[in-house]
Structure formats: structure tokens, C-alpha cells
Design a protein that fits this description.
alpha+beta; 5-stranded mixed beta sheet
């Protein structure tokens, strides 16, 4: 079985009038990524002057240098409050959820109310056009339980998924969600199968699930800092609506091997930058017009392709 995943524009993207507004944090690594993204994903980006783009990135980088002098250690002062006793029932239900248990099964964690502004960020862009829609679902003055469910949902409406057969044993799955992904391959025995079908009795089934992540707002703590791992759009939407704190599952790491279990490739590749730099990028920076640039990007789709190869034969029993 082979799996391929990509994030690509649909065939008629250039003719499609639909565009997606996106905020990009300038001045942060890596400049090459920004230039490549601008050329291929931004509407009209192929006509842009790379030298001008580099100059504005450099200006933002200089501002970050100034922030290192005036806001050194700001990420270490993040306010994190313990779980509200009134939410103990909701918390217990969350921890029994199979998605939650699978997502947080190997490191110690706590559920805390975190200060959004000072969360360290490794994802340098958010699709801010969705912020209003996301915040509207919550309302201007959510109760503690409403905010908890918004940040750590166990029930949600899933984005659409299109399925296309590309060959006898090859399928393509697409979704507008950036969270669309393949799940780990799984072997099911006969007693785990329901309505498996087939031309005869089925002894086992081996396949890969295609769907979405658990979608819990989560972060990673090392020392005093918390790096936001999942929930960028919700965090931005909450802050846009004037809400300063959000419920977050925080995994605790004390060494690099533990970090590799929980962190994105970006954070795992350069932990010193996110956990030790004087002034790393923080969520508040998305609201600083000197650092965050508004872009209009081409509408994209996440694509997962699955191809199954089966070989049959015989072998000598051992």
C-alpha cells in the first residue's frame, strides 16, 4: 500500500474567483519558504519582484531584532491557570474520548487556561478569513463550558470529502480542510469487521483510514514556555474576538526525544529557537501590521492518494 499526500490547487484555481485571505508573519525563518510560497500560492505572485519581497522581509526581521531588546523573555511570562473545578465533569468526559486518548497517550499533560498573546508559534501563517465565522459559532461572551467545548471539542461538523477512483486499486481523496490527512494503517480481524462484504468469508482486513486530526487546541511546554502545536485558526479567531485566554492541552517535555513525540517537524528540528530564543514569534505578532502581511492566496485542497498492491502465492510452512 502506498500513500501520497499533497496540498494543491484544483485544476480551475486560476479561473476561480474565490480567494483565501491569509496572514503571513514576515521576518522569521525561512525567507526561502516565503518567496516560494508567494510565487506559487499567492494570487499574482508570479509577477512579484523577489527583491522587493526580500526587502520587506528584512524590515520585519529588523523589527524582531528590536523586540529582542525590549521584550526579551516575554514568552516566559505567559499566564496559565489550572483547570476550573466547575469544568471537572467536562474534563473527565474529554479524557475518556478515544480521539483524546489516542492523541495524548505517551507524555504527561495538563489542561490549562493559557494566555493567547504569549503562545510561541511555529506556523507562520493563518487563514484569517475564517476568523469571523469561527468566532461567530462561539458568540461574544461564552460561558466557561462553552469556551471549553470550543477549544477542546469531542463533537464537530466535518468538512466535505470527495472520493475519486483513479484505477482498479488506486483512489484519490480531497478536502478543502488543511487538517485532512491519512491515519496509521490498521489490521482488523474477522470479529472486528461488520458488513465487510466480499465474495466469501473475510478473515482479516488491512487498510488505511483517511480523515482528520483530533482537533484539540494543544501546546507543548518546556520550562516556562508553551509552543502552540494545534489550533492556530481557533486561537487567532478567539483573540480577534477579544478573548484573551483559551483552554489548552499542554504536553510536558524535558528532553529532545520526548519533544519528537509531540512536536511538529519544524519545532523538533530547532527546539532552541522556540524554547530558548530571547524573543521568538508569538501569537500576538499576527496582530502587528509591521510583522503580519495580508495575502490573497489561491484556493487550495488537501489531497491524499492511496494505492493498494496485493501479491498472492504460496510458501513452505515453518
Amino acid at each position: 500500500m502506498s500513500i501520497a499526500k499533497a496540498r494543491q490547487a484544483p485544476p480551475n484555481a486560476d479561473a476561480d474567483t474565490g480567494q483565501v485571505p491569509l496572514l503571513w508573519l514576515l521576518g522569521q525563518p525561512h525567507l526561502r519558504d516565503y518567496l516560494a510560497f508567494f510565487e506559487t500560492k499567492v494570487c499574482g505572485g508570479e509577477q512579484a519582484d523577489p527583491r522587493a519581497l526580500t526587502a520587506e522581509w528584512r524590515t520585519a526581521n529588523d523589527i524582531y531584532y528590536e523586540l529582542e531588546q525590549h521584550e526579551a523573555g516575554i514568552a516566559d511570562t505567559i499566564e496559565c491557570r489550572p483547570l476550573d473545578k466547575r469544568l471537572a465533569r467536562l474534563s473527565a468526559e474529554l479524557e475518556q474520548n478515544p480521539w483524546f486518548r489516542a492523541a495524548f497517550d505517551n507524555l504527561p499533560y495538563t489542561i490549562e487556561l493559557v494566555e493567547l498573546d504569549k503562545l510561541v508559534v511555529s506556523q507562520l501563517h493563518v487563514e484569517n478569513g475564517f476568523a469571523g465565522m469561527i468566532a461567530a459559532r462561539l458568540g461574544p461572551d461564552p460561558s466557561p463550558s462553552e469556551l471549553f467545548r470550543f477549544c477542546l471539542p469531542t463533537e464537530r461538523e466535518l468538512p466535505p470529502v470527495a472520493i475519486r477512483r483513479l484505477g482498479a486499486h488506486r483512489y484519490q481523496f480531497t478536502s478543502p480542510s488543511t487538517d485532512f490527512r491519512e491515519h496509521a494503517p490498521r489490521l482488523l480481524r474477522a470479529d472486528e469487521l461488520v458488513h465487510a462484504g466480499g465474495s466469501g468469508p473475510v478473515a482479516a482486513f488491512f487498510g488505511v483510514g483517511v480523515g482528520f486530526g483530533a482537533n484539540f487546541l494543544s501546546g507543548i511546554r518546556s520550562g516556562a514556555r508553551v509552543v502552540l502545536e494545534n489550533g492556530y485558526h481557533r486561537s487567532y479567531a478567539l483573540r480577534s474576538a477579544g478573548i484573551t485566554h483559551a483552554w489548552c492541552v499542554i504536553e510536558h517535555v524535558t528532553r529532545k526525544d520526548e519533544l519528537r513525540l509531540a512536536a511538529s517537524e519544524t519545532v523538533a528540528a530547532d527546539p532552541e529557537f522556540y524554547f530558548a530564543a530571547k524573543r521568538p514569534p508569538i501569537l500576538r505578532d499576527f496582530f502587528d501590521p509591521r510583522l503580519a502581511k495580508q495575502l490573497m492566496t489561491k484556493r487550495m485542497e488537501s489531497v491524499v492518494e492511496v494505492e493498494i498492491k496485493v501479491r498472492s502465492g504460496s510458501s513452505t510452512a515453518v
